[in-house]
Design goal:
Length: 298
């Protein structure tokens, strides 16, 4: 198990644990205030905050499954559970966006302003600050460890912060600008939909078997040539990603007169070098080449 995977897993557990605690604390505060002031809007926002804990649970569960070792049914491990977790969170985020759109539209139809209270405003502003800070921290954490599920969860925190901020604005401006909360809510819903679509697309693409990037190909070819500079041609490269576990197959061309034993030794040397440098489990297929050709990758 690579050190990068261990750090990513710890980051996911940390984000999930802190997110759950913060969401639970904010839920209790907003629910209590909503009951005391008989505010249906605050109580609804409290349950919206509590629902964010669901994505954190999905995040932790995804990494928990992904960390399981390979078995007979899953010979390459369970690493894709990380991507599945990101896909689920992306879908949940789109549900949040849909809920935003519906509630905003209903506010436009009813045109009923919310009652003002200093305590309500203070609680909502404090909640907004906490969730915005949590979302920013999670976003940076996910970017640092290249974790799409953590980034997706960060956007979920951001959506809750925005919803709470809009509720505070709606209560503050009162009846004079009753439509502002609804209009802003619809605009924010569009942004969340776009973000959710991007997360779902990237996670789905990874599950379907996205081709390697040019950078990944260049690094692989560089590792091959460092291990054995006499390789004439590297081609037919396939990446099979299972989360942190990556299987690679590739073909190389050696001079046509290379003895079989030497060709096998070269293939083994390249496989070990790629594993050591890049962490890929590699299978090398050797082909006889003709005259020396210009280096390239097919």
């Amino acid at each position: 198990m690579s050190s990068s995977w261990v750090l990513k897993k710890r980051a996911a557990y940390l984000e999930g644990f802190i997110s759950t605690l913060v969401n639970l604390a904010l839920f209790l505060v907003k629910y209590f205030v909503g009951i005391v002031f008989n505010s249906v809007a605050i109580v609804a926002d409290a349950f919206h905050t509590l629902s964010d804990s669901l994505t954190s649970i999905v995040l932790v569960a995804g990494y928990r499954v992904a960390d399981k070792p390979a078995d007979r049914e899953h010979p390459f491990g369970h690493g894709r559970a990380e991507t599945v977790g990101g896909l689920i969170i992306g879908v949940l985020l789109s549900v949040v966006a849909y809920s935003f759109t519906v509630s905003s539209y209903e506010k436009l139809l009813t045109a009923v302003p919310l009652e003002y209270s200093d305590i309500l405003i203070v609680v909502l502003i404090a909640s907004t600050i906490f969730k915005a800070a949590l979302g920013l921290w999670a976003y940076r954490l996910g970017g640092k460890h290249e974790s799409q599920p953590i980034v997706a969860d960060a956007w979920h925190h951001a959506s809750d912060a925005i919803a709470t901020a809009l509720l505070a604005v709606a209560i503050y401006v009162g009846k004079d600008y009753w439509w502002l909360d609804a209009v802003l809510g619809i605009a924010v819903s569009a942004l969340i939909f776009i973000t959710a679509a991007k997360i779902v697309y990237e996670s789905s693409s990874e599950l379907l078997g996205r081709s390697p990037s040019r950078i990944e190909l260049d690094r692989l070819v560089e590792a091959v040539r460092e291990a054995y500079p006499a390789v004439k041609r590297v081609h037919h490269i396939h990446f099979h990603k299972y989360g942190n576990h990556i299987e690679v197959t590739l073909h190389i061309e050696l001079p046509g007169g290379t003895p079989l034993r030497e060709a096998h030794e070269v293939a083994t040397k390249i496989e070990n070098a790629v594993r050591s440098k890049l962490g890929y489990e590699t299978t090398v297929h050797v082909e006889p080449g003709g005259e020396l050709v210009k280096d390239h990758v097919d």
